[in-house]
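Question:
Now give any protein.
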Amino acid sequence: MHLVSTYLPPTATSHAVKCNLGEDLLVVARINRLDVYKLLPNGLELSSSLELLSRVAALHEVSPDSGPGALLVITDHPDCTALIVEFSVKEQKLVVQSSHRLTSSIKRPLAGCTVCAVSADRRYAAVALYLGSMNIFSFGRKNGGIILEMKSESPISELLLSSFAFVPNPTSGEVTIALLYRTHSDEMKLSFKTIDEDTLDVSRDGHIVDMMKHAFQRLIPISSRGEGLLVIGDERIVYHGTQKKDRKQKSPIEGRRKSDLKQREAHILTEWQYSDITGYGVIDGERTLISDKYGKLVMIVIDKEKEGIQAHLLGEASSASCIAYINAGVIFLGSETGDSQLVQITSSGSLEVVDTYPNTAPIIDATLADIDNSGDPIVVTCSGEGKTGSLRIIRTGANIEELASIGDTKGVTRVFLLKDGTESDSYLLLSYPQETKIVNIKDGHTYSEVPENDFAGLVRDSTTLVAANLEVEYSHLAIQATRIAVNLINMQTGEQCNRWPGDIVAACIHGDMICVGLHDNSLLLLHVDQDRKLLKDGKQAQFGSQISVVSMRSDSTGKSNIFLGFWQKHVVQILNTDTLERMAEIEVPHVPLSIVPWEHDFPVVHRFHLLVGTGNGHVVTMRLRSKGSSFDIGERRLIYLGERPVHLQKYVDQGKENVIATGKRAVILSRSNRSVVQHHINIKDIEAVLPFNTPRFSNTLMFKLPSSLLLARIGKLEKIKIDSVPLGYDVPVSITYHSETHAFALGCVRREPSRDEAYDATTSSFKLLDATTFEHLNSYSVPSTEEITKVCVTSLGINDGDISSKYIAVGTAVWGEDEPEPTKGRILLFTAVNTQSTFIATRNASAPILNLMLEQEITGAVVSMCGLGDAYLAVIVNTILVVYQLTKKAATNELQLKPVDQWIHNYMLSSLVVNGSDIIIGDTFQSVTLLHWTGSELKLVSKDYETVNSLNATLDDTHVIQSNVDNNLFSYKNEEDGIQPSGRYHFGEVISCLVPGSVSTNAARGGDKALAVPKHLLFTSGGRISVISKCDDERAMKLHNIQRNIGAAFKSDHYDVLSWRAPHTSIKTFSDDIPQASGFIDGDLLLRFLELESDSPLVKKILNGTKRAERLDMEYGELREFIEELQTTQY
């Protein structure tokens, strides 16, 4: 059983619309998700998101009147649906009001055409999803909401549609639609037809305008000159208007008469001087924005007086697939091939970027690389298109800005910060095993140790357990708790005010109270007398075990509690501070060493989170609710940080409390949608953290490392951090990591716009980039007729038994004129050697020397290749798999690749994966084949004969997974007698590559005992990254039952996940009869359970199922903990 979960949601923006849905909003479509942005004076703010199943094919605002509108969302094949989506002002989220299925099982899908058009008054919509058919909708309002009032499906004779649009503001009062199409003789035509308002039928006859054989793709309705359209082509833009002579309205069905639309002519035209058009947006009736594939943003202005079209180049930005004009010159550019941008047209007419929204799409290739030997690899993708080629570095970590470092702190066990009555930190207390030192940090630039005579009140001959200022107005007083005493210190004079001796094992400072755990298993409360500055004894209680940790909390009413952990008993006890009576006892998996009560974002007096750090590397989170003299313990969650004790520390960021947990790895814990969310910190060996605030370093954190202190700031908290390495026109198509030189090797294809040539100029090159700084180290260019197709790192020995050397193998394809496929290619072998004996990844490190050791011509294009053992190279050359061995020519002693064996196939091979001596081949027209390399020949082990049109494949020790052209996933169990089908699942997006590996270490995920073990990463052309994890057979049935019940509980007309995940196919095979997915679990569906409170009606449905046999033998808290642990183990 495999679990498929989203690691990075899709980032490509396909549609955007500024609309009034009760509020002025910007709604953006990203593959299958709608993001709602609020329009603020300083930019856009993400408000909420709505997840759909199918890809969004069209997004428009509709409304039957001048009131608030709704969104018309058309989803793409194979499950075509029209959704009416409204915005709930109260809940601040999108809600699907109705769903209307448009799918046809007998019609042929329409490709390469506009999917939907909406009339200028937003009352009508036309949808074309199939050849020769068009749906017309009209909208009404009922009970304040917008409904689909009428729907009609009409046949149309324009089969090869390119675009269609409603003609705006027709003077006749008729509803008119224009259709741009291509005839069987390859001529472009523009047809104008009317729509009957009573039946919504499209007239069969219409006025046709001959567009000759010019390549036109889009129609843009323009309302400034009556009935008008901009017809956009590769080389020209034409404005079409109308001259009306007969305004009499007639039914389009009566007698199949000639259209009353007279003499539509091309009034104005202009030459288009730029590249292919990717998107447009209308500003008003006279101005339209158009973007080309290289990011040139052009404003088209229709001049009424001069009857001309003016094209003004505003500047260059991302290539936009959609453009939404916001207001006052502010424009949102949504891109599928680069970062989406919010830009401003300045007073001088140029463009200024206001904000950027990262986009990893389209992902062409990807690799995993552990560049710092931390065990947590980064993901690097080959992304972009046109002039937005880039590498995207994706880390599971918070944004860390390192500011300064304090060295020579080796041996320090604890660190504390103290104030001298001001808001800023003044002193740094360093606790060693046998002593304590104090450092003056007021200067901000020079930190110096304070002599003993200058600060006599501090106990220096003992380790310090805890030190802090009193949290009261007289904060120049501080407490230092050591093993032998509690000291009250005046931080302004350095004198000791009072001292309480005792055999102390743990302590906590809260307000003007000090809670002390003593060696005799007792707990004592001390109070500070403000007037006399004395420590006074308070209540005392005895326990049966020695205290390991003490913490305290006060609510807004003044009531407080004490939280105790014990060495011998793995429990946390909650005490009433006034009576020291026990109110609750909570079991934890190991010795509690750190306890943090964590308030909610909007404090509720009786409700909070409790976090416990244990000695074996766990963080236990639970929700507590006070009920008089006791506590209700809510859902619990375990977070594993590696086999090292965990320390917890709260800090405040933009008014919100977050918690940093440090163990073998460190994470920031924040709250989102009532759940605790992790944000990894990509700093190694953090032992403790505390807030640091001085005039020079305000709102900073101090990280205690083994031998130094690091000052850093935490940026915007995100689950994933995405960095970009722009490459411009050099679009990366293949990438690998070369560990010996600490560099990434990548193949790039460069296409630049050419004004003199019919096609863009194309070149290709191989580059070496530093893995830390991403500086260019070296490169190699190939001839203009040649393209690099694959790059990999492999070990090759010249003869069997020889010591292997590492090579960077580069495969190419040589394109000849009028060739259906390349008949030539090359394999290049490079060595990369550092010029220093020890490589240091800094900007000053010398670039490695790149040596071309071999270039060998082959009889076709390199489709894929990878190393086979330590001596061979497996290469797909067109339709043949060839295994090469590196040898030397006898006559010249030059290196050559000698074919050892080959496997010939009749169809096009698409993918090649090697695991040990097993080889998996993906077939574009069929399925996967398992081969075995014996050391001297290839042997066929097993073949899947089902026709699935394989696209990508990956392999691990137990399973083969492949994707196909219908966006399905298939799994096969790798058994001794071959591969056996074990699962199938509709993923729903184009999968561009599958990469073996995981984004986190095995230890961090909980080791081999984890609920799910990540095995592969999945990448899509829309920018989504998903994790494919292996679940053992013992949990398979449990996961299946949980998925079944959650899917049934959330099922609606537009959201039926279990049906959606059933395999889809465009070819009739036996898989059409399979009612649902098998062998895969939808991890994103399981996570929806975390959105529910325990009293939600859906919880009861999930736990009980639809019948007695479906009942889950789990309580709410148990199921929530199970799903949260499942989530934690994947990334």
DSSP finds five helices and 85 strands in the chain. Residues 356 and 525 are 54 Å apart (CA to CA). The first helix runs from residue 1033 to 1050.
